Amino acid sequence: MTQYAVTADDADVYLSFAAELADSVRPIVLSYFRTPLDVVAKSDASPVTIADRAVELRLRESIEARFPEHGIIGEEIGAKPGGAFTWIVDPIDGTKSFISGFPLFGTLIALSYQQQPFCGLIDIPFTGERWMAKPSVARFGDGLARTSACESVADASFYTTSPDMFRKGEMEPFERLSRVARMRRFGGDCYIYGLLASGHCDIILETGLQPYDYMALVPIVQGAGGCITDWEGCPLSIHSQGRILATATPRLHAEALALIKR
């Protein structure tokens, strides 16, 4: 387990601040939801709206006011260099869901320490649900979050946001793993990682994710007792390539990795 030079009290302070951030932007997100919006295609063809930019601006302003020495990485505005700590934010994870009226989009807030995941938060504005985690402890609402006890792919519920995310050379591992699972479902973006942390699904496989898409998820899945790595089984950091495997238990993770690599 990674050793941190910060204390549990430090983690509590940062996580409490992350909750304040999420509280402050939730009304902004909801004020734009299911309203007419101009949608702009970014250079990678992914959509962005005024809501994404407004939320990220509020997050960045609040972080810079409270922790001016910390770095910031955001999906829409880019990176501000910092010291050992960097906040990584995705104002609206699931913009395609957001612009099409589907309510299971979220706001992701992560804090990395020396480029490794440290604290994470998933906020689902429309439902009011929230997962938060510091090292070794994940919470859902007022209680602890715990993954399921599933240890076999054949018994597992499999999720991914969309089969369309898998590129040439990635479809075979996706099909190989998902077809063995007891059930496979599509959709949900960050929400499905909350479902995994709370024991409602067992395997998630995705690709093409950026640090602002996955850094907040790592402490939550791990703190709930699950495993989350890249497709090679390596720990995730800011520099990972965005191929993500998350599972409920270590034994399930090992079997899933073996199917991916076969």
TrEMBL record:
Pathway: Amino-acid biosynthesis; L-histidine biosynthesis; L-histidine from 5-phospho-alpha-D-ribose 1-diphosphate: step 8/9. PROSITE patterns: IMP_1. InterPro entries: His_9_proposed, Inositol_monoP_metal-BS, Inositol_monoP_superfamily, Inositol_monophosphatase-like. GO terms for molecular function: histidinol-phosphatase activity; metal ion binding. Its cofactor is Mg(2+). Mg(2+) 2 binds at residues 90, 93. It catalyses: L-histidinol phosphate + H2O = L-histidinol + phosphate. Pfam families: Inositol_P (PF00459). Keywords: Amino-acid biosynthesis, Histidine biosynthesis, Hydrolase, Magnesium, Metal-binding. CDD domains: Bacterial_IMPase_like_1. This is Histidinol-phosphatase.
